[in-house]
Amino acid sequence: MKTTILIKLATQSIRKNKMRAALTMLGIIIGVAAVIVMVAVGFGARQRIRAQINNLGTNMIVITPGAAQAAGVSQGAQAFPNLSLEDVQKIRDEAQVVTAVSPVIVTRTQVIGDAGNWRTLINGVDVDYATIRDWQTTSGDWFAEDDVQGMRKVALLGKTVADQLFPGTDPVGQEVQIRNVPFDVVGVLAPKGQTASGSDSDDVVIIPYTTARTALSGRTFIPQILASTASEGEIAAAQNEIRVLLRESRDAEDFTVRNQNDLAQAAEGSTKVMTMLMAAIASISLLVGGIGIMNIMLVSVTERTREIGIRLAIGARGSDVLTQFLVESIVMGVFGGIIGLTLGVVGSKLLGHFTGWETVISPIVMLVAVAFSGAVGVFFGYYPARKAAALHPIQALRYE
Amino acid sequence: MEHVIHTEGLTKTYTSGTNEVHALRGIDLTIGRGELVAIMGTSGSGKSTLMNLLGCLDSPTEGAYELDGVRVESLGKNELAAIRNQKLGFVFQGFNLLPRTTAVENVELPLLYDRSGRKLNTRATAIAALERVGLADRLDHQPSELSGGQQQRVAIARALVTSPALVLADEPTGNLDTHTTIEVMALLQELNEEGVTIVLVTHEPEVAVYAKRIVEVRDGRIVRDEPVKNRRMAADDLEKAEVAA
Fold first, then answer.
1. Closest Cα partner for A318 from A309, A328, A330, A331?
2. In chain A, where are the structural domains located?
3. pTM score, whole prediction
């Protein structure tokens, strides 16, 4: 029999039992919608983290002290103040693939401006920092090599700090006091938003590291060195290079070299688990939906025994009946899948709209969800369909 | 005379455990084209079994059965399905129409299962069949919207739509009142006049008198096979009933 006729017969029979078909599909609809929403939320979270990590800079490498092993006991990262300006210099002079390098000296202190005072993070960095973090200014300019060499008291304000200390005015050319030392504001940084850990990237003041050492901390150790390469493909080579260079002046590998990907993976790890967990739970409802289809199809075979008998009597083959029931359950599965997909997409958008979560709907997930609901139709429809096809016409006709 | 049905020594034995039930014990029956035969018998006589065998709904235990020139006693399930589709039309006591399905869709159904490869407009053929039984104005009515007599007409149209060699009617008037029974019999007689071969299974003598020939089955054997004496024409009876009313 022609496929078009089969589909016609199947849809005819579904249309004749609209309520039952709708209830049957409900399980699939809810299951697919749930999977779509869960995965959309999970993917959204992942994409957000990815974006935040990328926001850190381009092709960035982070060197931190630590991971030292003292007599086999790991001291953990940052246990020892063992990165120095010499290390920075060495990387700058000898590394081949590394194109930019900068120490980061971190201090947290009070900053006084026009509109009051504000406790914030002071980062003492080199000029390369702008390149590494790919951080533009919205007003003014980054300080130059001269400012670093001359230990000049110049500062760039993050967006948050600028808003707090100079609301409504351009701080460039004005003065801030950091630990009672006056600094000239030379620039305001473009906003970068939240970091992966949820803190505010723009709540920061950036000054030359030389100035930071002399005027603020007085400490000699460097808590973090940032470096970057010209292209993404060179990151691994650069990491190796840095590791070898730093190792030359040390007895032990008491530092950690990581790239953005490492950071991203660490941050994504938990979201990935959550996404999979949520999708797994949602898949269970899809499975339950499939069992619902099987249940209704089984009831339907019994209920329609006479109908099957009539069809067999007027010349339908067992295989015709089998295919008809199978097509019915596939149509219900796929149709339910499409409705569920629509609901899931709309639901994801609404959820994103009302909660502010980012939701990402992946076309592959959409395709898989619909294909899977069709497969559910085949799988759970086969047994009832076979039962229907195996009926003997005489018994089926006599069935009351 | 060219025959539509020819059986020789048709037997059917049902086995349940060690019990053997001989439903048919050797039926020799020949029915020619254009006949209108009533198969009679009480319940348990074997007439239903005979009807199932003649209708290719079941296979005989022994014996030969030739239907419209085809030996069918040893055919497989799918071949029997094709035979039922091509050569047979069924009319049942309980009408057996698909519920929530319009008259024309019901009549069209056998054509949808047609594998013979003949190309035809199934919808138009179904409409023509319904016109033939006088239901041209009920095409899109569902069975629940039709009277018993109308439902049976739809069933007759469904049986005719494939132009079968034989129409098998199993107690076609069993669920109908006297007047409607005569109406349906009038239709069957009319179709028979047009050349349709009809086998009618009934236990009611007042229905059997509309046939041309009576075959009586008892205990799995044919005990009587003779032309109907005092054959009645249902159309005349209808006229008389109208005059009386």
1. A309
2. 3-52+266-398, 83-249
3. 0.71
